[in-house]
Design a protein that fits this description.
The longest helix is centred in the N-terminal third of the chain and has 19 residues. Helix 1 crosses helix 16 and helix 4 runs parallel beside helix 5. With 361 residues, the protein is an alpha/beta fold. The chain is globular and about 55 Å long. The chain has 16 helices and 13 strands. The chain is 45% helix and 15% strand. It folds into two domains: 181 residues, 3-Layer(aba) Sandwich (Rossmann fold), CATH 3.40.50; 153 residues, Glycogen Phosphorylase B (Rossmann fold), CATH 3.40.50.
Amino acid sequence: MASRNSLKVVTIVGARPQFIKAAAVSRSLKPSAKEVILHTGQHYDENLSKVFFDELEIPLPDYNLGVGSATHGAQTGQMLEKIEAVLIDEEPDWVLVYGDTNSTLAGALAAAKLHIKVAHVEAGLRSFNRQMPEEINRILTDHISDLLFCPSDVAVNNLVDEGIIKNVIIVGDVMADSLMFACEKANQQSTIIEDLGLTPGDYYLGTIHRAENTDDPFRLRNMLDAFVALDGPIVIPLHPRTRLAIQRHQFMAFLEKPNIIARAPLGYLDMVRLEQSAMMILTDSGGIQKEAYWLKVPCITLRDETEWVETVELGWNVLAGATTPSILEAVETFSIPKQHPDLYGNGKVGDKIVKQLVKTN
């Protein structure tokens, strides 16, 4: 393997799921490369950012661009300009991007235009819904990447269908590495269940954050109606976007209902502890869909489609859409499958990614 300083990687992150994914690869990079971490500031709330670096033992970012919230075009444009300046200064061998956010696309574009190699972790995912900004980010990033790290055969086949066949590698999902790392710490350190007065296995966990749900008052109200109608308490860590949408649409009264436990965004260890002990998770998050699968917790996805089709095909995840009746029907009729095959990796995905970066350098 290459010596520690022979390979230089700029890792670009900006949102909660990316911190979780980058944690696993950062631990694997330490023996063989110099890593420079660039945080775009897309998620700037401390509970969506700094706490993840602390809990997952990620080195603090070398750069924090502090871009913050804006329209998609303005945010991506600001990131592109600022990332480009860092890359010109750092001259890395690789730029490593994760997932499907505006930070992902901005990082990939800045690198590609400077002729710096791009590696995309979580390549090949498709929802086939181009109304989602994340779908556009995925497609464009994949088409300008030099190494494409896929979590599954489905992801590889999606790339083949688009004519992308070179340097496509199935490695699994780095979130499996991070979840395994976090579970033990969460059980030792998190007191969230006790703090909220919950009984393990006797509460729901709900998250809503995608623009398709928060920006549409009909969809958002239907989801909140469903949460209120559940037969037990539901913990809802409120993403800043979601809280603002609830205020904007005048839905704050929902948060006062007896079974609703609304909280500020939680750290990763608290979320993992809540996920492990929930009777069911209702979410529009791709990352939480996977975590629910790995933890063998029933998952209801509050969307019309998902990139993680294997979880649905195996019966551990149900697409419920965004109407109150469809969500409640999915909850009431869920049947835990007898089979639970391994999906998306075995906790060694970070090592596989680093090995390929060194090999392809």
